[in-house]
Amino acid sequence: MTDSICSLRRCANTASRALSVAVVLLGLFVGWSSHAEALWVRAGKLVDVERGRVLNDQAIHIDGERIVAVQDFKGRSETPDRWIDWSNYTVLPGLMDMHTHLVGNITTSEIATPLYTSGAEDVLLGVENARRTLRAGFTTVRDVGAYRAFTDIALRNAIDGGIVEGPRMFVAGAYITVTGGGGEVTGLAPDVVVPAEMRRGVANSEAEIRDRVRQLIGGGATFIKIIATGAVLAAGTTPGAAEYSEAEIRAAVDEAAQYGIFVTAHAHGAEGIKRAVRAGVRSIEHASYLDDEGIALMKKHGTWLVADIYNGDYIEEIGRRDQWSEEILRKNQETTQRQRDGFAKAVKAGVRFAFGTDSGVYPHGDNARQFAYMVRYGLMQMEAIRAATLYSAQLLGKDREIGSIAAGKLADLVAVAGDPLADIDELRQVRGVIKAGRQIRLD
Questions:
Q1: What is the pTM of this model?
Q2: N or C: which end of the chain has fewer CB atoms below 10 A?
Q3: 412 and 353 both lie in a single domain
């Protein structure tokens, strides 16, 4: 089995490197470099998400990629060679989005859009999407699937290699989905053949699911995404209908666990949510029809909720304008408010939650628009910020590395001009970004 995994990894990494080469010249053109320098940052206000407080006039000492110390500016004794003066800004940990789709075009009314571009083109489109996301203050994302298998891994590798500018990416490789399910390119004529690379994750039994999990992990996936129910944006599927049994989802969870990897479940319907939670998934995505029993199960099992509660308004507005199909618009109307009500009840009940937007349905770089919706549906501003920092890091199992501004952690920092604890929409007005000690943006 180990030899098989290694062989799959070599093949997938070869394909990934080939796709990454396509963006080398672009990376050189924009002058991207992975070099990080020793520096100090003066923060007028610093949001301490671990203790839920705001500190005034702080000095953050960064050496290489990591924070060395955080102290009062007036109490520092060092005389640094280089300062970044953010004394007029509020400084937060780098933001995180746990539900993105960076590769390829954003959603349109044309159901065949995924077929109009090659894998290389999808990655190149992802380069710009990644740049916009990072410059909007999101230094880490969980990219929850691309139609063309392993293109997300190619983009991740290009970012990690310093070829292009983008957030730190955790990647799924492809969707695990039933034939014709919520993770397939659907709505096409019966005689249209969808490329094999778009069906890499199709699995219709426990044995097939285990095989697909091994293939994706061998190809470089850092978590597994299983489509447990139908989808709003997949033609011909029903969001409320379960598409995998509890045993089938557990097969994915058990197989992934052998490699120390979590599984997340796309799940709109109440029954699909409960099957996924009982099967042991790490998080539930969307949760449109989450009911009281599902909330109790999620709290009992410690399952994370990642609900894209802004998205429905975008789909309604742009979908009507651009004449998206009546099926999609109907499903969106049926799920949007129910999802928001379920989110509010889950938060009140004490279910763990993280920040996830489904960017890729809407244009990348406007991820922070969702913060206001989270506040509207039950969160205080500090909790909304924690959702996109500390809590997202905990969901990833990386809270010792990222998620707060503290000595020893990676130096991911975001500066905004106003006070997001007074007006959460200030997080849409980013003035500066540092990722792993490297200055990305300073307006």
A1: 0.91
A2: N
A3: no
